[in-house]
């Protein structure tokens, strides 16, 4: 490995290859601290050309490459495997790819380096009178490259779609060091397969994304935020449908269950949002649009919906931010009480009520079945797109029984075992619960074609069979 470190230092510069085991260990543990692996070093190239050279150098030594952005991913995709197959792992950090070009107001697009954070991108767009469509609580660390690689969603997906909908082009380095893609931003061009869109959601298994051309939106300030107390997720879903009938331009529609609200209040020292406690809370952010002249007009429309009596509506920025804090601070609040099993699933909106009705029993059975004590269940998420975050505290972090049970439950309700966080290392074994075997086989074929040696992010996204297949091929 000594030679690879030396070679990488020659490529990226001596200061940009970290090999001190204590320092490397910090990069090899994920945000949740549930997933950890080991790597020989961390390289932070400064250009696309350096990344291509670094990948080729790693390939020459048979070392695996683990692309890493802000390391805020929640499914263990940004860190090396815990068990090595004998090969060294190198973490390839994009933290030096921070170039941000001027916004082009005519195309409403901007080119950003993969290491630019979402918060910086949002500020940059705002300074040009525009808005970036993806926003998430990890905005200060999550990067352009990481959000593309995971197809991140976030709080405005209901309005602008996930990251996929913002990508107008990108540049990426494949496993053989070749550089692909375009930053022309030509959304009207059709010249065969769309490689940029293929790489969205590929979780670092097909290429290292180095730059992206991103669509921006006209600014849409929030006119109002409301929190309504409901009897649970089914009622919240019904209420949301009624609100959308009279106000189609929602910026966000989020759900928080009673346990999540109680915890965030406790940890963050927040007063109750509503007069009485409820089983579930619907938070809605309404955009100020040209069609509706002032906040009173929204209130009049909302009057026709039949909002629950215990609804709080905020119309000024401070009051709106105060309501958002119940939702925005949940993840950090959960992290203060333990290492949760975070199970991010998507369920068709009409099936959310039935899914949640089954959830408590499924979680309890899975946890008791594995000899654990009473679990603590917290459910919240992006209701408007059927994306729920099921958090279970209690079971040992290494015990995946409850994670698997919840993933199976989501699939049995017509949902997906993974939503905005992706598959990572956490969910590879469950991909088949909600994806056709033929779909997984087609993805494997693409992986094998672009990365035949399995250099990029081994153990992420694909079920273990791919490793076995490769081993078989080699033996033969
Ligand atoms: P990393 O965590 O570094 O990497 C994630 C994956 O992308 C890994 O597989 C990695 O190998 C790959 N990758 C990273 N950079 C590149 C690159 N340049 N080229 C190729 N592959 C790459 N997610 C949501 O979708 N919505 C939310 O609302 C949301 N809220 C969050 C709130 C908190 C408090 C936290 C901690 C996380 C949240 N997340 C959310 C999860 C996380 O922020 C996202 O998954 C984000 O997209 C990860 O970006 P990152 O730069 O940190 O990527
Ligand atoms: C969120 O929506 O807050 C995030 O996806 C983080 C989480 O799931 O905890
Ligand atoms: Zn989320």
Count the strands? Answer: 15
Radius of gyration: 23 Å
Mean pLDDT: 94
Shape: globular
The stretches of 5 or more residues where confidence is low (pLDDT under 50) are: 466-476
Strand content: 15-25%
Bound molecules: flavin-adenine dinucleotide, D-malate, zinc ion
Task: State the share of residues found in helices, binned by percent.
Answer: 25-40%
User: What composes the largest sheet?
Assistant: 7 strands, antiparallel
SS summary, helix count: 17
Termini separation (Å)? 29 Å
Based on helices, strands and strand pairing, what is the structural class?
alpha+beta
A few lines on this structure:
The chain contains 17 helices and 15 strands.
